[in-house]
Amino acid sequence: MDTKEKIKIVLAEDDNNLGGLLKEYLEAKNYMVSWAKNGKEAADLFKKSGFDLCLLDVMMPMKDGFTLAREIRAMNKTVPIVFLTAKSMKEDAIEGFNSGADDYITKPFSMEELLLRLNAILRRTKNQISADDSIKEFDIGIYHFDCENQTLKANKKEQFLTTKEADLLRLLCLHKNDILDRNFALNSIWKDDNYFNSRSMDVFVTKLRKYLKDDPKVEIINVHGKGFKLLINK
Question: Do 173 and 140 contact (CB within 8 A), yes or no?
Fold first, then answer.
């Protein structure tokens, strides 16, 4: 499998033995694993790069898993989050799901069980993305956006969009009135969230604002440190 196609996992685990075993096992199964040994380090990793899944220990120094999950969920509404915990109390499971978790696995667990859980969650996520892929047309205030034909129409005027403009506007539409995570957009469209691509995306956002300026109820706002939000006011 090509490196670009590998699933990227951020692993937050302060136990050196378990963390090392998990990283080694998952990489042997063709995942890309970035291992953080405390909650703060994991949060910093997530901010810097796009990930496909988060595997978080609950009890960690500097920042616990529940706090970390809430921070990740504020940055990205859809990335799957799985908790690893030595506790089996019902209250912890409830708090885990309340903080944005998709699943919860109690230590000790078998590597095979973990892998089955991760694969099941990733399949669900992929199916959701596939469902989103079927949506090709959007109404944005007075505008009608046809992603496939890369056109934006309003008041008998038609604006043709470049492929990247259309892809970016489509992602904004799919996240309408919600935050489109900057790293998610960069990895989805540019396949890399480096500095130069990030600056390029800012230019495309400026262009999209210009195309949408005839409707004062439509705006694309910057959400500092997180991304962008397409607001459609009624």
Answer: yes
Burial class (CB in 10 A: 0-12, 13-18, 19+), 203: exposed
pTM reported for the whole predicted model: 0.55
Is residue 117 within 8 Å of 82, Cβ to Cβ?
Answer: yes
* CATH topology for the 3-132 domain: Rossmann fold (3.40.50)
Residue 148 is classified by DSSP as T
Buried b (16+ CB within 10 A) or exposed e, 15-32: beeebeebbeebeeeebb
Q: Please compute, for residue 48, the number of CA atoms within 13 A of its CA located in the half-sphere on the CB side.
A: 9
> Who's near 17: CB < 8 A, 6+ residues apart?
none
Bridge-partner residues for 228, per DSSP?
180, 222
- Structural fold of domain 135-232: Arc Repressor Mutant, subunit A (1.10.10)
> How is the chain split into domains, by residue range?
3-132, 135-232
Q: How many CB atoms lie within 10 A of CB 150?
A: 17
Q: How far apart are CA 124 and CA 45, in angstroms?
A: 24
Q: What is the pLDDT along the chain (234 residues), one digit of tens a residue?
A: 344 468 899 999 999 999 999 999 999 999 999 999 999 999 999 988 778 899 999 888 889 888 999 898 888 877 889 988 876 655 666 777 777 777 888 888 889 888 988 888 887 766 555 556 677 899 999 999 999 899 999 988 999 998 889 999 999 998 888 888 888 888 788 877 778 888 889 999 999 999 999 999 999 999 888 889 999 887
Residues composing the chain = 234
